[in-house]
Design goal:
The chain has 432 residues and is an alpha/beta fold. The protein contains 16 helices and twelve strands. The radius of gyration is 34 Å and the shape is globular. It starts with a helix and ends in a 13-residue tail after the last helix.
Length: 432
């Protein structure tokens, strides 16, 4: 009897499990409605879904890739314009980047660029400078970079430099008229000058290309079509070093503080290269007194009110400046006077004294800025910020004993005196 009862219980359990299996199989075979297509969603915009009160819910518009990008950019950089999704990194036929980096900093981005005059053979020296600038500054801001050359850049130069720069790169050919002897120059006289300077062993004294470079940097780089779109520039040359982190936008600092020209190193020019430069400058001052700024920086340039030139200049291989100032009528008239007098070829006028004299005369002295916090090296001189705590805070790796600022051949002390700026603590220890 007990055995029979056990069999009955087993039959009941088997039957129960069988019914459950059949139930789940039948429920899984119920057909499900397909998901609506994008066109169907568009067609249903403004209609009421089944089961919803009229006017309560509307079908949402389709979500596009563009709207997803807009939403992502708005969340990441609320105060900055979003970069293009597929903006080429090169402005001509080089490689492209699929997505440009979004700036790591929020706020206004200035209309600015780095600019470098280089040859194809300078590639492995300029990449050192690029890495320095990107690591210490531009990886935070992603500014563009313009490269200019009197010969076409090759693909190796374009590919390597583009791969290292976080902003967009531009490559331009210098017009022949900006890299040649102008029609008014007596080339035989210019040749004799070069031969004489070579005999006297004046640095770059026998070089034609150096003279073209100095003339181009003095009067034409800011006129190049690639530069016309920009308002601010930072000049970078091959083989430089930046020793400290730069955690703010230097271009924005210039704009916000009404600065138009800046430097980190200053020194005396070789007297043999500019014997008549100041004569040409005085001719310009007499011809255009309207261009001479009130409260200018003459005190940096001259110890006798402008009668003579003391040969001080800002070292122009580093400069951050305003391009609209260089394009102004005042600077144009200034350069045209110098170019007419021929000293770029009959002597060996450098762009450093040309820029410095222009800044000292055409700008108010308060419009010139010394970037003490940009630690910089260009052979053979170093600017290392005077102040141990600053160097520690900004991860500087320069030796303060190498700082050129307070040496006898530097003019930076003269700039401090003109501006009535207090010299930093410890500067006496860095004198000769």
């Amino acid at each position: 009897m007990a055995a029979g009862s056990a069999r009955i219980v087993r039959y009941i359990l088997f039957a129960f499990f069988g019914v459950m299996v059949l139930y789940f199989m039948s429920s899984s075979s119920i057909p499900r409605p397909p998901l609506p297509t994008t066109s169907e969603l568009k067609g249903k915009q403004g209609t009421t879904p089944p089961g919803a009160p009229a006017g309560d819910v509307k079908a949402p518009p389709p979500v596009t890739i563009e709207k997803m990008v807009e939403a992502s950019n708005a969340a990441s950089v609320p105060a900055a314009p979003a970069p293009a999704l597929t903006n080429p990194k090169q402005s001509n036929d080089g490689p492209t980047a699929s997505i440009q980096s979004v700036a790591e900093t929020s706020g206004e981005r200035m209309n600015a660029t780095f600019v470098t005059l280089a040859r194809n053979s300078d590639l492995w020296e300029i990449v050192k400078s690029i890495r320095q600038v990107e690591d210490r500054f531009n990886r935070k801001f992603h500014y563009d970079w313009v490269f200019l050359n009197d010969k076409p850049f090759d693909m190796a130069f374009k590919n390597v430099t583009t791969s290292l720069i976080s902003g967009k790169t531009h490559y331009g050919l210098i017009p022949e008229e900006h890299w040649s002897f102008p029609a008014h120059i007596d080339t035989d006289k210019a040749r004799r000058v070069r031969e004489d300077m070579a005999q006297r062993k004046i640095i770059y004294g026998d070089s034609i290309s150096y003279r073209h470079m100095c003339r181009f940097e003095s009067g034409f780089f800011f006129q190049h079509p690639l530069m016309q779109q920009f308002e601010w520039y930072w000049r970078v040359e091959p083989s430089i070093e930046l020793y400290c982190d730069i955690n703010y936008d230097t271009f924005k600092y210039m704009r916000d503080n009404n600065k138009k020209y800046s430097f980190v190193l200053s020194l005396y020019e070789y007297v043999e290269t500019i014997p008549t430069l100041w004569d040409s400058v005085k001719t310009f001052m007499n011809s255009h007194p309207e261009h001479i700024a009130k409260d200018n920086g003459m005190e940096f340039l001259s110890g006798d009110g402008g009668e003579s030139y003391n040969h001080c200049h800002f070292w122009s291989n580093f400069e951050i400046g305003n391009l609209n100032w260089l394009r102004s009528q005042a600077y144009t008239d200034y350069f045209n006077q110098l170019d007419k007098d021929g000293g770029f070829f009959y002597e060996r006028w450098g762009d450093a004294p040309v820029h410095s004299i222009a800044a000292g005369l055409l700008l108010k002295k308060d419009e010139i800025h010394f970037f003490n916090d940009i630690a910089y090296y260009h052979v053979p001189f170093t600017h290392c910020p005077t102040g141990e705590q600053y160097r520690l805070d900004h991860k500087c790796h320069c030796n303060p004993k190498d700082n050129f600022d307070w040496k006898g051949y530097s003019c930076t002390s003269r700039f401090f005196d003109m501006m009535k700026m207090e010299k930093p603590a410890g500067y006496q220890d860095q004198k000769d």
